[in-house]
Design brief:
The protein is mostly helical. It has 2 domains: 61 residues, no CATH class; 91 residues, Arc Repressor Mutant, subunit A (Orthogonal Bundle), CATH 1.10.10. 52% of the residues lie in helices and 6% in strands. It is built from 8 helices and 3 strands. A 3-stranded antiparallel sheet has the order 1-3-2. A hairpin with a 2-residue loop joins strand 2 and strand 3. Helix 2 packs across helix 3, helix 5 crosses helix 7 and helix 5 packs across helix 8. The N and C termini lie far apart (78 Å).
Length: 190
Amino acid sequence: MGERDSELEAIEVVFNTLSSLDKEGQKRVIDYVFKRLNLTSVVNNSQNLELSQQMRSDATREAGITVVSPSRIVDIRTLKEQKSPSNDKEMAAIVGYYLSELAPEGEKKQIIGKDDLEKYFKQADYKLPQHIKMTLPQAKDAGYFDLADRGEYKLNPVGYNLVAHNLPRINKVAVRKPASNQKKKIVKRK
């Protein structure tokens, strides 16, 4: 009976939460939750499938989420916007990831060079570094790439994980401690 009670409580929470939204909002939330939990709807006709896909697309767009799946190719600009690189080395890793994992079949490649960075930085609307030829060596030094050949680099597992799992970085509020070497005010007593 305990499992049934928890299900009823969950139903009540979901119902109360959704009832404050308009119909379209309710549909977007339910569709998004179904997608996140890998659930399938009991309704399975083509009209509802098209509506479900449209609502999922609308909900993820409004939430600022870009769904990246192997069956869906994302352009480099969308990937850059989703991952929000904080520097040129991270953007280079995004280019390496895009070209090895998401690019259309004719563009896919494992090894990249300076010319690839220039092309895909421009396509992504990312500001070109002043010394672009140094970006890949610096990204290698940061641990994101392995040297494949002179001037050519391959995204390594660290770079892959950076893009696939660690970007965008969530800003954490830094709590600043007072410096221990600050001079203390000494008051002389007479």
